[in-house]
Design a protein that fits this description.
It contains 12 helices and 13 strands. The protein has helices at residues 15-26, 36-39, 55-70, 84-97, 114-122, 147-165, 185-198, 215-229, 241-254, 270-278, 291-306, 359-362; strands at residues 43-49, 73-79, 101-105, 127-130, 138-145, 173-179, 204-210, 233-238, 285-286, 316-317, 327-331, 336-342, 346-347. The strands form 3 sheets. An 8-stranded mixed beta sheet has the order 2-1-3-4-5-12-11-10, with helices on both faces.
């Protein structure tokens, strides 16, 4: 997802970790040609993020760096700026530097970066993705909570809350869906999950507003649609409340309305979503994992690079203490390789907003 900072999403900045990120960006190995992987001591992994400064991206970086240190590897982090050409330029440089593995931590146009993934494949460099998956090439593992399934779960809770607010009946009316960038696989997949539920209620008419993964656009689209449809609006679904929810809530309040009367929900909570939950502005949010996928990604890259056993199709990964467990290993529908499908709870309907296992609480010191 295209998760920007204050200019585009209105998120809280994590200045302390940003300093660490800048240091990571400058700790780059000299760009040498073939044989670099064999000459360097220890391993080096390359990681491309979308935009530093947003909490879930900071969680990715923090977890990946910790995991790399545990296996004695160097992690080079690059900001892809959500731009396919920038990402592929970073990949070209990583190949010249002789990295041992590549972590794709999000892009906007996952099809446009496929030539870069294929270039890594041709060099025998393992590729793992988190957040979103390149839509082509060999991506050894994509680690995620099933976006379509989790969006459907959020939609079920959304409709049930609309029902409960209307005396046990789902009324006729308009539902606003605030989406992300239409180029992004997350947008398409999240909408598919949402509509798999809403299609069962023909009395609900869904109108979309392109929130572009930021609070400014999300606010403006919500305000426009509330003005256009007025009292017919019975609910507002936000694909990612962490980076668009505050803008939506502000638009609702600006219209003189109570946000809680619109059953607002979606996927990705973050510290921003926690605040919305604590303020009773939203029904609930699916807390997608961020820390666990990044740690697991580095562990898998290390195992792939050193020839150690890795999960196989049909395996089920478990951790009795983790919210993401159990995680099924299934074929990827987007690229050659496998998907590790983690679980994600709906907060606060299934776990407390203060549950210490949530990455938003585990990394609270960063916000």
């Amino acid at each position: 997802m295209n998760r920007t900072g204050m200019k585009r999403s209105g998120r809280v900045r994590c200045t302390g970790l940003l300093v660490a990120v800048v240091l990571l960006f400058t700790a780059v190995m000299p760009a040498t040609a073939g044989g670099a992987r064999q000459q360097q001591q220890g391993m080096t992994f390359g990681m491309v993020i979308k935009y530093p400064g947003t909490p879930y991206i900071e969680a990715f970086i923090y977890a990946a760096q910790a995991a790399a240190e545990e296996v004695g590897a160097t992690l080079i982090v690059r900001d892809g700026e959500g731009d396919a050409q920038t990402i592929m330029n970073h990949i070209d440089t990583f190949i010249l530097q002789g990295i041992n593995g590549f972590l794709m931590a999000g892009a906007v146009d996952q099809r446009a970066i496929v030539p870069g993934i294929i270039a890594l494949n041709n060099e025998g460099i393992p590729v793992v993705a988190i957040d979103t998956s390149p839509e082509g090439g060999q991506v050894d593992f994509f680690i995620t909570a099933d976006v379509e399934a989790q969006s459907a779960r959020a939609a079920e809770a959304f409709v049930e809350d609309i029902r409960s607010r209307h005396n046990g009946t789902v009324p006729s009316g308009v539902v606003i869906e605030i989406t992300g960038d239409v180029r992004d696989m997350y947008t398409r997949t999240a909408s598919a999950g949402f509509m798999s539920v809403l299609n069962r209620y023909p009395q609900l008419r869904v109108v979309q507003g392109d929130g572009q993964w930021n609070n400014i656009d999300a606010h403006d689209r919500t305000s426009d649609l509330l003005t256009r449809h007025g009292n017919d609006v019975v609910g507002i679904y936000v694909q990612t409340p962490d980076i668009m929810g505050p803008g939506v809530v502000e638009a609702v309040r600006g219209a003189g309305l109570n946000p809680r009367n619109f059953s607002i929900t979606g996927t990705w909570m973050g510290p921003e979503g926690q605040e919305l939950i604590r303020n009773n502005d939203v029904l609930g949010i699916v807390a997608m994992p961020a820390y666990a996928p990044a740690r697991m990604a580095i562990d898998l890259l290390h195992k792939l690079a050193t020839g150690q056993p890795v999960p196989q199709e049909g395996d089920v990964l478990t951790d009795a203490q983790a919210l993401w467990s159990p995680a099924r290993v299934v074929p990827s529908p987007w690229a050659d390789g496998l998907v590790i499908e983690m679980q994600a709870p709906i907060v606060p309907l299934e776990v407390s907003v203060d549950d210490p296992r949530l990455w938003e609480n585990r990394l609270r010191h960063l916000w």
